[in-house]
Design brief:
- By secondary structure, this protein is an alpha/beta fold.
- The chain has one domain: Aldolase class I (TIM Barrel), CATH 3.20.20.
- The protein is 36% helix and 11% strand.
- The chain is built from 12 helices and 8 strands.
- The chain has helices spanning 3-12, 53-66, 84-93, 115-121, 135-142, 146-159, 185-200, 216-224, 228-237, 265-270, 287-291, 302-305; strands spanning 23-27, 70-74, 98-102, 125-129, 170-174, 206-209, 252-255, 261-262.
- The chain has an 8-stranded mixed sheet.
- The longest helix is centred in the middle third of the chain and has 16 residues, at 185-200.
- It binds iron/sulfur cluster (SF4) (2 copies).
- The site of one iron/sulfur cluster (SF4) has 11 residues, from loops.
């Protein structure tokens, strides 16, 4: 039993279990046009891992069984998978609501063509990462030019109705630049709205704050600055029991590019497949077992329970 499990067991009287699968998250590849300093997946332009159409067809099959409220497509840059469009079209044909996690700046690449219009035509919800509304801070995490391109992409998406029409959701994602927890989500959302509107005329549906997890490239950053222990102490000392019910592993299943199954995107980054008797590959999918599986946890889980809590859907309390 690890420290995280010990605390969960003490508070709730049992291990951490999945209670239902509302979100089916699909990582369709680790290739990304960026190489951000905080990326827990270590995505970059040189990564080759990419979900095949064969695995995508299996994802569509399990989505038909799970009937999730959303199929959340992520990467890397999901836009770089050549089968993205056919995947979305097939999911839509089966009446699944689709969401894409985009880093925004990739949408300005000429090779993306009419992709935003394709998203619009298929009613795809968008979650765009924009770590800060200040150019200098984004440059630190993402490198030169990414901020300008992200703003250009946001303006283009606003022009076709994203972030403005109620059915065209455009939520942004904030994660801290330094070794801190994110600020309170609703307060920061107001700041984002005001600053992005005043500076660039950009509108958004909402803001999701996500805590940097002590894994992947962010862990390397912590270690390089000799801050690992201090950051882990911050996460552990900020443990908030009210976050337990909403932990995303309790309400989702993640499929990696090669069909392996995970409790969440962070376990996916660590290669910790589902376990405790649950099938760990899409070929052996069993909805009854996976819906009630015991979650695989570790010290990194304190990143989800710190402060207001954190998940791919933003803060938890
Ligand atoms: S954080 Fe997002 S945009 Fe940055 S390298 Fe990772 S996947 Fe790409
Ligand atoms: S890291 Fe994953 S498994 Fe751990 S608490 Fe967070 S969502 Fe659950």
């Amino acid at each position: 039993m690890n420290n995280f499990e010990r605390i969960i067991k003490k508070i709730s009287g049992s291990w951490l279990y999945c209670s239902n699968i509302k979100v089916l998250q699909v990582n369709i590849g680790l290739k990304c046009n960026n190489q951000c300093s905080h990326c827990h997946l270590m995505a970059s332009p040189t990564r080759k891992e990419m979900m095949s159409w064969e695995i995508m067809k299996k994802v569509i099959d399990i989505a038909d069984v799970i009937k999730p409220s959303i199929v959340d497509i992520t990467g890397g840059s999901p836009e770089l998978n050549p089968d993205l469009k056919i995947f979305i079209e097939n999911l839509k044909d089966e009446n699944h609501q689709v969401q894409i996690r985009t880093n925004l700046n990739i949408l300005c690449d000429p090779s993306m063509g009419e992709l935003p219009k394709f998203f619009l035509d298929n009613g795809v919800k968008l979650v765009g990462s924009l770590p800060c509304y200040l150019k200098e801070n984004v440059k630190l995490q993402r490198g030169l030019q990414s901020f300008e391109k992200s703003i250009e992409a946001l303006q283009m998406l606003n022009d076709i109705g994203y972030g403005i029409k109620p059915n065209l959701e455009l939520n942004l994602v904030h994660n801290p630049i330094g070794f801190n927890l994110p600020p309170e989500q609703t307060l920061l959302e107001e700041e984002y709205r005001q600053e992005l509107e005043e500076r660039y005329g950009v509108k958004l549906t909402g803001l999701l704050t996500i805590t940097n997890m002590p894994i992947g490239r962010f862990l390397l950053q912590l270690e390089g600055a000799n801050q690992r222990q201090k950051y882990m102490n911050l996460l552990k000392n900020s443990f908030n029991p009210r976050t337990i019910d909403g932990l995303m592993c309790r309400h989702q299943l993640c499929v990696d590019w090669d069909g392996r199954l995970f409790d969440c995107d962070f376990n996916l980054a660590l290669g910790l497949t589902v376990n405790h008797g649950a099938p760990a590959h899409i070929n052996d999918f069993d909805v009854d077992v996976l819906s009630k599986r015991r979650v695989v946890t570790g010290d990194h889980c304190f990143g989800c329970t710190a402060g207001h809590g954190s998940s791919c859907g933003g803060s938890l309390v």
